[in-house]
Every structure is written in C-alpha cells, then in structure tokens.
Amino acid sequence: MAASMIPTPPQAGKIYLGDCLEIMRTWPDKSIAMTFTSPPYNFDAGSGLGNKYSGNEDGLGQDAYYEWQKAVIEELLRISEVSFYNIQYLAGNRIALMKLLGHFAPKIKEVFIWDKMGAEPAMNEKVANSGMEFIFCFGEGSRKIESATFERGTFSNVLRIPKNTGTIPGHSACMPIKLALTMIKNFSKEGDLIFDPFTGSGTTALAAEQLGRRWVGTELVAEYHKIAVERLGLEAQQGKLF
After folding, report:
1. What is the pLDDT of residues 161-187, one digit of tens each?
2. Distance CA 6, CA 112 (A)
3. What is the pTM of this model?
4. Which of 34, 117, 120, 153 is most buried, taking the most CB atoms under 10 A from its CB?
5. pLDDT for 15-51, tens place per residue?
6. Contacts of residue 173, Cβ cutoff 8 Å, sequence gap at least 6
7. What DSSP letter does each residue of 54-81 carry, written as one string?
8. 8 A C-beta contact, residue 24 and residue 32
9. How far apart are CA 56 and CA 141, in angstroms?
C-alpha cells in the first residue's frame, strides 16, 4: 500500500472541513467508539419550500439520496463500534429511507423514537403533523448494544425531548443538545471518541465535551464549520456548554 493510502487515525478535538465520505475513507477500521449524527433530510426534494442547508444540496432525487446515504452508513459501520442516525420521515426521503432500512436490516440494532413533544402543522394538505423523528442504531451483532451504560430496565427507546425553540445564528436546523447528551451519556463512557460526520453547528461535539468524551467532526460547508469552531471555542472559554 502506498504511503498516501495508509489509514490515519482521526484527530480528536478537530472539525475537518470537507466531504465526510472522503475523510472517513482515510480513517482505520473501528477508530470511532460512537457516532451520533443527523444527516440532511433531503427536505427540499419534497417540500417545495427551499433548501434548509446553506451550500449543501438538500433536494436530491430519491435514488441519488439513497446511494449517498448508503455510502455514508457503510463507512460508519466500518469506522464506528456503534452509530446512531437521527432522521425525520419526509416526502423527500421516504422512499430512499425505506430502501436504506431494507438494505441495512441486519445491521439495525435498535429503533429509537424521538418524541419532540409537539408538532408544527404539516406543510401540505392531507399530511399528518410530524411530532417525532427516528434514531436508528447501526452496528454488528444482536440487538444488544454493548456500549450501553444504563442499568437494565431504566432506558426507553422513546425519548421525550422538546425540539429547539430557537436557532443558532447562521444555522436553521439545530438539534437540541439534550438529545445528544442523552444518547452519548447512555451509550459511551468517559474518554471515548465521539464522531459526527454532519457537524453543523457543533452540538454533538459540545455534548461530548461536557460529558468528558473526546470528539471529532467533519463538515462540508465552510460557513457551518466556522460557526461550530467559534461556538466550541467560546463555550469552552466560558466553562458552560448550553
């Protein structure tokens, strides 16, 4: 193998600017303890309301979206011990999402429901309001999630956590930090390396840092990369993360 092709371990405490697929392909197998991420939902393909993500295509055809996310999940399975993948069921991704679940059925260890404790009115007529999102757990083996830290009978696969009521300036699609804190606390231990391939405003990294985990991220959009870097630095200096 040429020297340039030798896998390089991910650098903790860094948000890589670039395509997550290209970057993940340079990392060794099982170099990440836990991935927690929320990819673009392909919102613009079905809503007709425009792209929610600056500088990133969010209106792919169903086939293109399927192939892209299939490649992402394949890499996550290779580099991560366990991966949690948060996504909403929308017109723009529903066919691709069902195909992904079929393709990766043997690798789905658990299906969590994020109950957002409220739903905005549907964008179109004759469509149900959506007050929940999925979090799929991908990994090898049985339904048992080996990294879990909670006691038997104490953790539900329905997470009742309110959605964000505001946004980070410059980023309109931020998950509540409580969601990331809940998953990272219950499925990793202190010192583990936590990864988010779609870093966005840096919520996963902030949660990981607060819980004493190491973290690493990738972000394609330079504007979001800047927001995350500044947010992490500012919050760390103040000694508080939310």
Report:
1. 999 766 665 545 678 999 999 999 999
2. 36
3. 0.88
4. 34
5. 999 999 999 999 999 999 999 999 998 866 544 444 4
6. 52, 53, 167, 200
7. TTS-----HHHHHHHHHHHHHHHHHHEE
8. no
9. 34
